[in-house]
Amino acid sequence: MIRLHKKKSELTADAIVNTIWVSTFLALVLTLPALGVFLGIYFTTSNLLVGAIVGFGLHFVALAFSDRISRFLTRLLS
Membrane-crossing residues (predicted)? Predict the structure, then answer.
């Protein structure tokens, strides 16, 4: 049988709201620049492959720094 440890942790409404805002802003920071670069390259050069590669690369570079971005957003919104 699986036994789950019950920890007493009180989550306040402020902590939950802060978590939701940080998650939302992190999602925006990770997706919108890559999408903007992809669409910008696609509409200016009409080259879908180059836009996809550059946008995909930018997205993963942003993912590499997501821990730092998350900590910054948490400090900013706290």
Answer: 20-42, 48-65
